[in-house]
Structures are given as C-alpha cells and as structure tokens.
Predict the 3D structure of the following.
Amino acid sequence: AEFAMSIMEYSGGAVLAMTGRNCVAIASDTRLGSQAQTQSTDFEKCFRITDKLYVGLAGLATDVLTLSAQLDFKHRMYRLRENRDMTPKTFSAMLSNALYAKRFGPYFCEPVVAGLNADGSPFVTCMDLIGAPVDTDDFCVSGTCTENMYALCESLYRPDMEPDDLFETISQCLLSAVDRDALSGWGGVVHVITAEGVTTRRLKGR
Amino acid sequence: MAQLPMWTSEGPALVKTMEVESESVSNAAMQAPRWSPYDFNGGTTIAIAGEDFCVVAGDTRLSTGYSILSRNVSKLLKLSDQTVLASAGCLADITQLHQRLQAHMQFYRQRHGGIMGTTSMAQLLSNTLYGRRFFPCYAFNVLGGLDAEGKGAVYSYDAIGSFERVPYSASGSGQSLMIPLLDNLVQFKTRTDPKPVLAATDVVSLVKDAFITAGERDIYTGDQIEIAVITSEGVAVEVFALKAD
C-alpha cells in the first residue's frame, strides 16, 4: 500500500555515535527500504574516511551514497595537496560547507561525524541536512528513530567508558531503538575507534 | 487561463497559467486554516506490571503549543484500590472521560455490591472510547492495576479503544522516548544476560530514571511526576520533582 511520507523517511535508517575515554564508537543499522518494502539488509551507513575518522549518513540512500563518495574524494584531494589527513574538526567544517552549498536543493542526509583528535581525545558532531552543526561531548544520533535513540542514550550513557564498555552500550542503544522503528533495523554494524585502530563488529538484530 | 507577463533572458514574455480543476474541494479550501476541536496538552504516562504489584506514573505538566499552562495538573485517576488510570492528550476529553468512568464505577458498586475489577474496567474503558468512534476522545490511556489473581496488569489503548494487556506501556508525547527504554530495561529484549525479577522499589527507580530521560528530550514532559504503586494493600502515591525547564 502507498502512503505519503517525508523524503527523509523514504529509505529508513539510524546512525548513532558515542564518545568514550580516548575512544569513540559509531554505529548504524543495515536496512535499506523503499518506504515499507525492504530492499536490502546489509546497507551500511558508516563510511571510513581515515582510521581515525568515520562519517555516518542517515537519510535518502541515493544521497548517502553520493555524499559519502564526494566526501571521500574531497578528503583524498586534501591529502594530495596538504600531505596529511584532515582533522575531525576540519572535516566537519568541510562537510557543513558541502551541505550548505546545496541550501536550496539539499542532500536529504543528516550526517554524524565521529573521530579522534590528534591528542587522542574523542570528537563527535552531527548536522542537519543543510549543514548546521551541533558539537556535543557525549553522543549524536540521526535517522528515522532519533527519539528512541535519544532516550536510550540519555539513560545508558556514562562519560569515559572504555572501548569494550562503549561497544556494549552503543549496541544496546542502537538495537533497542531500531526495534521500535519499522523503517530501521535488520541488524547493525558498530565501529569502535581507538588510538590502536578500528574494531568493526556486526550486530544480529530482530 | 490567465496570461502573466514575465521577464526572461531573451526579453519580456507572456506565460500562460493553468487552472487546476478539482472536482471535490478547491485547493484554496484545502490550504485554509480550519478550527480544530482538539488541542494537545502534552505529557507522558507510563505503567509497568510486576509480580504482585503495578506502578502507574504520569508527569504533571499541562501545556498548549509552546506554553506551559500549569506545572501541577494530575494525569492519574484512582478508580479503586486496585486500579489506576493514567491519560495524556487533550485535557477536556480526558476530564470528561474520567468523570464518565467514575460514574460507571459508582453504578457498578450500587448494582453489584462490589468494586469493579481491573479486567472489567479495561473492557469498559475500551467500550467507552469506541462509543465515540466517529468523534474520538483525544485521550491516550494506560490502565494499571491488579487482576483477579493479584498479579500486576497493564492495559494500553489507542484513541478509539483498541486495547491489549501488556507487561508495560507508555503513552503521550514522550511515548517514543520511553517505550524503547522499557524494552531494554524491563523486558531485557536485546540483552543476553538473565532477566531479573524486579521488585516494586526497583521499578519505581526505573520509572524516575525514565521520566528524567524523557524530561531531557521532550519539551512537554517535566515539572514533577506522580508515581502510584498498587499492591494488595492499596494505592500509595509518591511525588517526584523533575526539571522545570
């Protein structure tokens, strides 16, 4: 059956990032849909920019793919010119600018950036579809079930979690939130970023 | 078909406009603001069933639009020593619904010489709501109490009376914030560690945490909460303060 829906809810999806002690985790569900019809159950929404910087994109799938390719390209060009990786702060500014450049015909995507600064401290930020950034020191969420994710994060989050603890917490938040959203779910993927590297784990959903 | 003078890069031009013909209603009427008989007065209610107890809670903030009308209006209705109803939505409809249910309680007591049980009240509430199927009561209810065997019972409703007995429920503006949290902490749905049996004091702490969380992210939830704990000894009500922002 057809029913009218906002364009931001067409593909479905959820992205969540959380800070820990000298580590950060970013997670997304793996569903891709056309309104009520599920098209794929392994559509990841977190993209690697560097081993210390990931971006999660929730929203219309075509814009998720286009924007992630564009960001990857822009970062590679930066690396060629500057001979160094972008810092998370710079990447966020670049992403914000890329979104605002399309102010009157935007990408239907609300990104979440998660990374580690040069000194090892965690960095998360999220943006609306036209690039208005919000820097937080605890967690950022985006997607079709933000209310669900907000409640779980507010309750389960504690500052300065170790990587294993952070993984457990972010997984519980994501799974419980998407279980009450018809448009998100079908499993999840979590990337935990520490100074040593990135650990990627898949979650089994319902 | 009107012709509008317009400017293009090649000079002035006359552009023909199309009249959109609609059989039923004209576009103007569809877009014009209409008076609505409903107002959303905000707030969140929650009920959790235990082994031999039930906890029903609701915040006490009354809002309209972006304004707060009162910080101290109760959403809870004590129907008997065994049953408490919590409703969120439009206060006008809620008040009327509560008064009708109380009147029914009295009739029942007079006719049958006994208090109406929770399961009967659950059915009555459903029938009362369905009675207004074509001009619904804008009330989102959760009914909590003890069933005939003394076990905790929670029933959750939609606006036209569809109801179901559930282990826990939440309704109102903070519903989508509360329910996933309860899935995780009460049902242990996504957890692999063993689910503990919660005592009344544990559930009350959980309810306070849930409301603090909802109060953070929902503008309509806050000020204070009333928590009613229903046991075989009766109904005990506790008031807990939340942020007033």
